[in-house]
Amino acid sequence: MRTLTLISSAPSSDAAYRTDLIRRYLGVGDEFAELELLAEAACYDKANPGAPSLTDELFGASLGDVA
């Protein structure tokens, strides 16, 4: 079972959104839903170029203890 550890180096006004997206990604059981969440993260990254990459966070979260 995957677990979630959110590491935030700076407070963010959208931390709740990021946390929710990561939780949904970790709980997804369907590869198409996973791709939709990755696409959502990519859109977020494009709209927020100065923020840490949410797509990278999703990939990192999926690695679990390996990361």
- Distance between the ends: 15 Å
Counting DSSP E segments of at least 2 residues, the number of strands comes to 0
**Helix and strand composition category:** mainly alpha
| String of helices and strands | HHH
Shape: globular
Percent of residues in helices comes to 55-70%
**Biggest β-sheet strands, sense, barrel:** none
- Tally the structural domains: 1
Total helical segments: 3
Residue-averaged pLDDT: 82
Radius of gyration, in angstroms, nearest whole number:
11 Å
Strand content: under 5%
Unreliable stretches, pLDDT < 50, 5 or more residues?
none
Topology:
Blueprint (H helix, E strand, L loop, with lengths): L14 H13 L3 H17 L6 H10 L4
